[in-house]
Specification:
With about 260 residues, this protein is an alpha/beta fold. It has one domain: Rossmann fold (3-Layer(aba) Sandwich), CATH 3.40.50. It has a 7-stranded parallel β-sheet with strand order 3-2-1-4-5-6-7, sandwiched between helices. α4 links the parallel β4 and β5. α1 runs parallel beside α2 and α3 packs parallel to α4. The longest helix is centred in the middle third of the chain and has 29 residues. It is globular, with a radius of gyration of 18 Å. Pfam families: adh_short_C2. InterPro entries: NAD(P)-bd_dom_sf, Sc_DH/Rdtase_CS, SDR_fam. Belongs to the short-chain dehydrogenases/reductases (SDR) family.
Length: about 260
């Protein structure tokens, strides 16, 4: 098994991509710390599934925008599992309004969770991996929003662009410690979080309009995350894996309506 005996921490692991990633890592042998902020019942379901696979699970309630709380999660993971070998920065928050109409509390919350939360997690996990002396692997869940100026998403666009450069900087700073840092671009994925912005009818219609003809599935992204964390990707660091169903292809983004 790819991660037999390894200890992982996944932020935002109660729902969507984080949930799928936590379960995928457990399926490949990892013990997994499941971070959540408010979805306790769903987080418990993830932990139960991990344990049903014969692995250990640890529930960690914390707001990733709180640096001390993130550092505490890392310490609790090591206390429970003996080490921290794999870290997935997945937790995010997004409000969608135009720049001039934006509620600034939501704007700041988006930056605090999506950018600072990712930084706190990468930093704390890297410090622990350096202390252990055996290397490690980190994946940051970024987004096409980092590269595409999607309207009504300025704070989220800014935060995702920032964590891309954070990832690359961390990768070069940590390479001497044999700690790999990479990122992944999920496209439009069918997660509970999308219901904050769209109805079921809008999601169905939107999926059909995508180049691949459907929304992505969290389990698909989880497999990409697991690959990057694994020794199969040992020669990969400072890189971005794009799993977005063709959303960023120029032929699609520039096509006339109705053209294929």
């Amino acid at each position: 098994m790819k991660f037999d005996g390894k200890a992982a921490l996944v932020t935002g692991a109660s729902l969507g991509i984080g949930r799928a990633a936590a379960i995928e890592l457990a399926q490949h042998g990892a013990n997994v710390a499941v971070n959540y902020r408010s979805s306790e019942a769903e987080a418990q379901e993830v932990a139960d599934e991990i344990e049903s696979l014969g692995r250990k699970a640890l529930l960690l309630k914390a707001d990733v925008a709180d640096q001390a709380a993130v550092e505490g999660m890392v310490a609790k993971t090591v206390e429970a599992f003996g080490s921290l070998d794999l870290f997935v920065s997945n937790a995010a928050y997004s409000d969608r309004q135009s720049m001039i109409d934006a509620d600034m509390a939501g704007f700041h919350r988006t930056i605090d969770v999506t950018m600072w939360g990712a930084f706190y997690g990468v930093r704390a996990s890297a410090m622990q991996m350096i202390k252990q002396g055996g290397g490690g692997s980190i994946v940051v869940v970024s987004s096409p929003h980092a590269a595409l100026a999607i309207p009504d998403s300025m704070a989220y666009n800014m935060a995702k662009a920032a964590i891309d450069h954070m990832m690359r900087t961390a990768a070069i700073e940590l390479v001497g410690h044999r700690i790999r840092v990479n990122a992944i671009y999920p496209g439009w994925i069918d997660t509970p979080g999308e219901r904050k912005f769209f109805t079921e009818e809008q999601l169905e219609a939107g999926g059909k309009a995508l180049p691949w003809g459907r929304l992505g599935r969290p389990e698909e992204i989880a497999k990409g995350i697991a690959f990057m964390l694994s020794d199969d990707a040992e020669y990969m660091t400072g890189s971005i894996m794009s799993m977005e169903g063709g959303v960023m292809l120029p032929w699609w983004s520039n096509r006339a309506d109705g053209e294929m």
